[in-house]
Design goal:
The chain has about 525 residues and is α/β, with parallel strands linked by helices. It is built from 13 helices and 17 strands.
Amino acid sequence: MQLLLFRLKKKHLTYLIGMTIVFHFSIKVDAQTSMEQPRPRIVVTADPELDDNNSLIRFLLYSTDMEIEGLIYASSQYHWKGDGKGTKWYVPGREYDLFGMDTCPCESWRWAEGERFIHDIVEAYEQVYPNLKQHNPNYPTPDYLKSKIRFGNIEFDGDFSKDTPGSNLIKSLILDDEPGPLFITAWGGQSTIARALKSIQDQYEYTTDWESIKSKVSRKVILLPNGDQDDTYAIYIKPNWPDIEYRQFTGGPRYGYGAPINASVENAKFLTSAWMKENVLDRGPLGDLYRVWGDGKQMVKGDMVDYFGLSGYTDEELKKMGYFVWMPVQAKGSWLSEGDNVTFMNMLGNGLRGYEKGFYGGWGGRVSETQNDPNNFPSTSSLNADEMAASIGAQNNQLADKEYPNFFPQVQRDFANRLKWSITEKYSDANHEPEISILGPLHLLASPGQKIQLHGSVSDPDGDNLSTKWWQFQVGSYPGKVEISNSNSLQAEVLIPEDAVGGQTIHIIFEATDDGTPSLTRYKRVIVTVKNE
């Protein structure tokens, strides 16, 4: 992207010229204007993996932007509790079937006694809540978040044979009459989600209400998975609820294990030990719970898959110690993983409106037709350690879309700033996001060859200088690039290409970045639909 050249020098500088359109024929505008983004309703289901822990810390720092309806413990092939009755469990091809472990059938798998990582993070949030609410009054109270914690189907991976407090909560949310979609994430397996849907099916399938209930559920529920980690999507959800939208985001920032591998120079500095210590680890109770390489911690004592907390050992030395090394050792204190970020980063109120449609894209990546197929990402459970590491690296390379913007620097600066809020008592002692809007509608209808003038408005609550630019986000159906004149000013002109076809869409982003510490960026999206002549 181009350097941000246009500087705005005043605290509240607003471009007040009304929106004008230059064209030969009239343009139709839809009724939607640049109003504040709604707060999507969202449920988190998570297993006690390192990246779930880290993603949850980030998630709660953005709880200002979402209506959190559930924080639910889930199982997966990587973590399950067992029933406490001595029942042994085994499914071929699972993680515990890797590397010749020969440890299962077993009573549980990588689940700590008294596991409470969600509770721990919410309690850390409670400690910093007085600071957070000084910077944004929309932070939910700790008691509200505590009221949303449930245990789901955690006994065995892929088992959704009975109702649980977590599945019952999801069921009640699906069936309620609140408007808008219900977004349900799957940071672990989807058995708790499957149980909620199965319970609805069992209750209504043979009643006169079934068709209307099934239609309501299919319209309302949007799944946000990080893969199919226990096969319940493939086995039950997809065959029985084929019309439920399934958004698996790819192509955006790399948040998972191995992110530093092949990271660009621009992004690598946000993954280093020095950056993590200054901006994450040293920032209060939430920073204390964040996991990095070589931090001396282990999820479950004796876990031979979790060597991430160890430092000073080579891959080969760890293997000799009995660890199953599936990811190359990296620098002590450096980025470890936040692999589940992709499920919720498009829900954020940063102005990109990524929650509206899967293909819109945002800080979490975007959905394409092939990416929306859960089978597009085959399980790595049948690979050995070296093959698994290579597979993750290959996926990282494959998902790097040359046309997709690099949002990672903005993402990390924003995260660092929210952690700073958590330890900063006074509003004036931290940075805050620019305020940005479009003077006019966010949806336009235009003909090929027309010129559209777009007008932006920006201000900064801290009095920081602002840089602005307009750019094309190539997620629309028009495949080419458009010409944007005066792209670094508040008023820009977009030429609709002559070869644009009726019905095609063009997405234009208005972006503002302040010069605070750290610098923060916000956006507005204008969608132009080409007119049928």
